[in-house]
Design goal:
It is built from 6 helices and 7 strands, in the order ααβααββαββββα. By secondary structure, the chain is α+β, with helices and mostly antiparallel strands. Strand 2 and strand 3 form a beta hairpin. The longest helix has 15 residues.
């Protein structure tokens, strides 16, 4: 009897549509691409509010673009996040932390293909640019 119960549970787990969708390879393009809740402007705002410019990058005047690639899965999570091009000095890690924060708030609307949610590969650049402290101080004095 125990073997029968185990066999039934195994069948139910393996035949679950949710599991089948999660295990399929991600698409590069679908009919309806994934969207950040609130749109592209909200994505930029979220990153700007949550990114922390690393002290080591500031101290070494490091600026540039980090390019991250990830999969927006059917469960609204950014998974398999990797840095395609980094600039070092802690900036790459700062970008990865932003994805952790996105996942805590389920900020993505999954892509859809043939009217079904599908995992989709997404690439996102994040620019690090230092603001001139000396320029701000001069403006305040004048």
């Amino acid at each position: 009897m125990l073997k029968g119960i185990v066999a039934i549970l195994t069948y139910l787990i393996l035949s679950s549509p949710l599991l089948a969708q999660v295990s399929e390879p991600p698409f590069s393009y679908v009919e309806q691409m994934p969207q950040f809740k609130g749109g592209q402007d909200s994505l930029y705002q979220f990153v700007a509010e949550h990114i922390v410019y690393p002290d080591s990058a500031r101290a070494n005047n490091i600026e540039g673009m980090v390019i991250a690639q990830f999969v927006v899965d059917i469960d609204s999570l950014a998974k398999e996040v990797k840095i395609l091009r980094g600039i070092g000095y802690g900036c790459d890690e700062a970008v990865l932390k932003v994805f952790d924060q996105m996942n805590q708030e389920l900020m993505w609307i999954p892509g859809r293909h043939n009217n079904k949610p599908r995992p989709v590969i997404y690439t996102m650049p994040v620019t690090f640019k230092l603001e001139g402290k000396a320029g701000k101080e001069k403006k305040k004095k004048n």
